[in-house]
Amino acid sequence: MLSEHIISKEIVEMTKYVLQIDGMQCGMCESHINDAIRREFKVKSVNSSHSKNITEIISPEPLDEVKLKNVIHNTGYELKSIASEPYEKKSFFDRFKK
């Protein structure tokens, strides 16, 4: 006898945050900020660039911007701005869609 398993796929809306941060000079600075954010927030991904002075965060939950500012400040860097927008994951095959 075969049993059917229905897998329910919950749709989670993600938000992309782009932080403008002053003071990052190298890869270790990027790691320091990434680790601090991961420690304080449940995020899907976080990536920093010292050459662009930005940190991008993908989060399934809204982030508390005051807490975010404090986390960045406590690492010794200055948060200049926060921008957010809905995030839609793009697959490899999206490139071929017209």
By DSSP (H or I, 4+ residues per run), the number of helices equals 2
Helix content: 10-25%
Work out the oligomeric state of the chains in this entry. Answer: single chain
Cross-sheet strand order for the largest sheet: 2-3-1-4
Number of strands: 4
Gyration radius, in Å:
17 Å
**Whole-Å distance between the termini?**
44 Å
Strand content range: 25-35%
What's the rounded overall pLDDT mean? 87
Poorly predicted residue ranges: 1-9
Helix/strand order, N-terminal first: EHEEHE
Secondary structure layout:
Layout: E1 14-22, H1 27-40, E2 45-49, E3 54-59, H2 65-74, E4 78-87
Antiparallel strand pairs: 1-3, 1-4, 2-3
Q: How would you describe this protein?
A:
The chain is of the alpha+beta class and 98 residues long. The chain is built from 2 helices and 4 strands, in the order βαββαβ. It has a 4-stranded antiparallel β-sheet with strand order 2-3-1-4, with helices on one face. β2 and β3 form a beta hairpin. The longest helix is centred in the middle third of the chain and has 14 residues, at 27-40. The protein is globular and about 45 Å long. The chain starts with 13 loop residues before the first strand and ends in an 11-residue tail after the last strand.
Short summary of the structure?
With 98 residues, this protein is of the alpha+beta class.
Keywords:
24% helix, disordered N terminus, alpha+beta, 4 strands, 98 residues, 2 helices
